[in-house]
Amino acid sequence: MTAALLFEQFLNGLQFGLMLFLMSAGLTLVFGVMGLINLAHGSLFMIGAFFCAAAAGLTGNFWLGLAAGMAAAAAAGALIEVTVMRRLYTRDHLDQVLATFALILILSEGTKILFGPFPLYLDVPPLLTGTVDLGLTPYPLYRLALIVAGIGVALGLWLLIGRTRLGIRIRAGENDREMIAALGVNIRALYTVVFALGAALAGLAGALVGAVQSVQVGMGEPVLILAFVVIVIGGIGSIRGAMVGALLVGVIDTMGRFLLPQVFALFLDPSKASGAGAALASILVYLLMALILVIRPKGLFPVHA
Amino acid sequence: MPDKRREYALNAVLALGLLLVPLWAYWAGSPFTITVFTRIAIFALAAVGLNIALGLGGMVSFGHAVYFGVGGYVAGIAAQHAFNGETFLGIAGANQMLIIWPVAMIAAGLLAAVIGAFSLRTSGIFFIMITLAFAQMVYYFAISWPTYGGEDGLPIYVRNTFPGLNTMRPWNLFILCWCLLMLAIGAFALIRASRFGAALMAIRQNPDRVAAVGISPFGIKLAAFVISAMITGLAGALMADLSRFASPAAMAWTMSGELIVIIILGGTGRLFGPVAGAAVLVGFEVIFGGMTEHWRLWLGLVLLLTVLFARGGIVTLIAGRERLG
Amino acid sequence: MVDPVLSLSHLSKSFGALKATDDVSLTLMPGEIHALIGPNGAGKSTLIGQISGRIAPDAGTITFKGRDITGLSVAQRARLGLGRSFQISSLIPEYSARRNVMLGLQARQGHSFRFLKPVMHDRRLRDEAEAILAKVGLAGRASVPSAELSHGERRLLEIAVALALEPACFLLDEPMAGMGAEGVGALVDFLRGLKAQAPILLIEHDMDAVFALADRLSVLVYGRIIASGSVEEIRNDPAVREAYLGDSE
């Protein structure tokens, strides 16, 4: 094991974490502002990936695909918000879980009908192919771009929430719904915008990740569940918590899968070591979540009600 | 009380219908029908378990598939070791259902005690996400641990046995499942009527009040969660024997969702809600699954409309809202 | 010298910069009604939360029947005999009045891990619950789900549930809130009889009721107890007049 390999895995973890952040940010915003648990957030991730891959395949242009993916996810999000979610804000969490579970079934089958049952593939754009020398190790340029994009979006989101009129309204909505309605903010429109924004972020994540994995139905749910872990760790409703949680989960998961089999190999024979190491690595982030729950039941950055 | 009488009638129809249709299929020589009804009975049993946590206690566990899956793995691992003569941590295998069932229930119960001890520190949306995450943890562990099949699951070459019955015959396996389902429904009724049930249903409605009269909600909820998981675990062991396969897919998150769907379609907290819900879900899959490969789209639409516009499920639709006395 | 049933010593709790309770000490003696009054935002809810165990104090101790209960949970305190009613009625909505009281009885007996015997067929529990309901004047409403009771009836049911616990002291959080004059009058008479059974710490807004009932009064303003004494002493206390009764005269 060399420092270069370790560094490369760390960057992979960072990149994974930033993509998780794009997913978690929308989820946590929607929960914080509207009090809604949205299982179909993973479907928006999938929609982003599919529309990006399909549009890029048709036009031959990755960047058009990226825009199409984001736009499709945002449009799907807005449509879902107006037709379904709106009726769920005042319902209990059980109804929200069921309705959004139903949406997953609908959106997954709908995607199959629209794009066929086979996975799509998205090529890395020519501009971002190849590797770049980072001193310690050469690193794929596209993955580096993902890291930069993730940081860029996080900064943009921070500015949006902290510095703009929309952000002020979002923060007000988290604290007191009646208050901002009383202030004359069109709360229905605000909810639709917040939902579409979260959807666009999920779609962006799906589109970006589409070039490093196959684009298929069901790709959203594993990410969704990890995003839940991120939110539990970070604290529901907290963007900052989502950032910290996502980076922790991304790096620990990636490094665990890389390091644990090697650690186990020190005292087990190789065949058993890789199995046991992989098994333990696959549950590492959940153990982290359990640990955080014991120490901080409301997450690292609790948003007090 | 006409509502109450209508519910009794509906319950009788469901219990007897579930018994008589396969009996007819037995005479008519349609093992496929018997197998479909065995699936209904097993899913209903799993949902009776979840109904204790969700229906009575209001705990929206989005990870109950994990107990279903663990029950299946107990059946699979026991059968494998009975087959190859090896041991699991020094415990010999078994192919006797009367041994496997309690072991499956204990395994599911222990896991639920651990998961519950963490997740029940929270409530609401946190609880939903955490139960889902822990179930996913066990799922990933199962598919990445190669000893018991990993992603491929674990086949059960010879179906486990029950004294005096040839379990390879569909009708015999069905009648076992039906009897266990009725026993579980009986247990559910007892629990609901008991002091424990009184406390549990009160906690669902107002945990602060229950604490203020001196009953700790945590202990009651944890006990209910464990009992709930044990019943679902038993159903998992039966499912593994029915499909002769212990599958990691049995503990996938979609399974957890389907168990909740069964309860909601049937009627949350209602005695025979799980039976009605399981019949609808399995029936939907068998009937529409034969007509279109996109049957899940229609299931999703039906489910969505049910949640948005027809709350309370089938039992409420027919027998009205429940009064707790 | 008789020992107090409940005593708070130097309780403090801050939320950020806000001192919700600031070095609060008070006692509840056997057989008395000790009323706690104060304007809105004086920290009464926080104090109730700390006594009942929902809010952990930053500093100070709570002693109940000679035992330090500061670290105990809500349920543990209730089992020791701290019976409380809620400011906003907090009942089991789908349960009938009878069943709400039965839950209190069940809790007092300490048998909630019983799985077999149907509780609604338990004659003794039912009869006892109905006797308690009769005491507060809800005998005819025993089978009505608590969500369908009127506001005043729910206030009475709150008291009935507290009675079922046979507590060593009652912690009543604005039991008259939202009640009509007639209801208040009946409740005042009832509480006067109740204090022989167990002392009452009464948090109440209705000043006429407080002055009619209280053996002692404490006044909470901005989280501090600014005065404590008999009704007469409090009426004439200049600090109270200024801070609380204020400009009204």
Automatic annotation (TrEMBL), chain A:
Q: Which UniProt keywords apply?
A: Amino-acid transport, Cell membrane, Membrane, Transmembrane, Transmembrane helix, Transport
- GO terms for cellular component: plasma membrane
Q: Does the keyword Hydrolase apply?
A: no
Chain segments annotated as transmembrane? 16-37, 44-60, 66-85, 97-121, 141-161, 189-212, 224-252, 273-295
Q: Where in the cell is it found?
A: Cell membrane
Listed GO molecular functions? transmembrane transporter activity
Note whether Transmembrane occurs among the keywords.
yes
One Gene Ontology biological process: amino acid transport
Q: Name the InterPro entries on file.
A: ABC_transp_permease, BCAA_transport_permease
> What's the superkingdom here?
Bacteria
Q: How does it sit in the membrane?
A: Multi-pass membrane protein
Q: What family does the entry list? A: Belongs to the binding-protein-dependent transport system permease family. LivHM subfamily.
Name this protein carries in UniProt: Branched-chain amino acid ABC transporter permease
Species per Swiss-Prot/TrEMBL record: Pararhodobacter aggregans
UniProtKB/TrEMBL annotation, chain B:
Q: What is its main location?
A: membrane
Q: Which UniProt keywords apply?
A: Cell membrane, Membrane, Transmembrane, Transmembrane helix
Record's bilayer topology term: Multi-pass membrane protein
Q: Where are the transmembrane segments?
A: 7-26, 32-53, 65-83, 98-118, 125-143, 171-191, 212-239, 245-265, 272-291, 297-319
Q: Where in the cell is it found?
A: Cell membrane
Please report a single Pfam family linked to this protein: BPD_transp_2
Molecular function (GO) terms listed? branched-chain amino acid transmembrane transporter activity
CC terms in the record's Gene Ontology section: plasma membrane
Question: Any keyword Amino-acid biosynthesis?
Answer: no
PANTHER family cross-referenced by the UniProt entry:
ABC TRANSPORTER ATP-BINDING PROTEIN (PTHR30482:SF17), HIGH-AFFINITY BRANCHED-CHAIN AMINO ACID TRANSPORT SYSTEM PERMEASE (PTHR30482)
Q: What is this protein called?
A: Branched-chain amino acid ABC transporter permease
UniProtKB/TrEMBL annotation, chain C:
Q: Which Gene Ontology CC terms are recorded?
A: plasma membrane
Q: What sequence ranges are listed for the domain ABC transporter?
A: 6-247
Spell out the InterPro entries in the cross-references: AAA+_ATPase (IPR003593), ABC_AA/LPS_Transport (IPR051120), ABC_transporter-like_ATP-bd (IPR003439), ABC_transporter-like_CS (IPR017871), BCA_ABC_TP_C (IPR032823), P-loop_NTPase (IPR027417)
Q: Name one GO molecular function term.
A: ATP binding
Keywords noted in UniProt: ATP-binding, Nucleotide-binding, Transport
**Record-linked PROSITE patterns:** ABC_TRANSPORTER_1, ABC_TRANSPORTER_2
Q: Which PANTHER family does UniProt cross-reference here?
A: ABC TRANSPORTER ATP-BINDING PROTEIN, CONSERVED COMPONENT OF ABC TRANSPORTER FOR NATURAL AMINO ACIDS-RELATED
Output this protein's name: ABC transporter ATP-binding protein
Q: What is the lineage of its organism?
A: Bacteria, Pseudomonadati, Pseudomonadota, Alphaproteobacteria, Rhodobacterales
